[in-house]
Amino acid sequence: MPEDITEERITKDMLIAAVIEQYPATEKVFKKWFGKGCFTCPGSKNEDVQFGSMMHNVDTDVVIKELNRAVQKAR
């Protein structure tokens, strides 16, 4: 039985670098919302998704949903 696409694997309190490392398919989503500099920014290793969303003035819930969709599609 396929996993429900609404199942949340990524949460707002996860570190950005950890999400990218564990789920490489999320890279496109981070680039879309946070820009290409996200991957060279030292903060990505210390900042969670919620903080990154706040810093880039985007809705955390929207980013989380897209990140989780990217993980599901990659499976």
**Uncertain parts:** 1-5
Strand content: under 5%
- Mean pLDDT, to the nearest integer, reads 88
The secondary-structure class comes to: mainly alpha
Q: Report on the biggest sheet.
A: none
> What count of domains describes the coordinates?
1
Number of strands: 0
The rough form would be described as globular
Number of helices, where a helix is a run of at least 4 consecutive DSSP H or I residues? 4
Cα-atom radius of gyration: 12 Å
- Separation of the first and last Cα atoms: 13 Å
How would you explain this protein's 3D organization?
The structure is a single chain. The chain has 75 residues and is an all-alpha fold. The chain has one domain (16-74). Helix content is 49%, strand content 0%. It has helices at 16-22, 27-34, 49-55, 60-74. The radius of gyration is 12 Å and the shape is globular. The relative contact order is 0.25. The model is unreliable at 1-5 (pLDDT under 50).
In short:
The chain is mainly alpha-helical.
Walk me through the topology.
Layout: H1 16-22, H2 27-34, H3 49-55, H4 60-74
Features:
mainly alpha, single chain, 75 residues
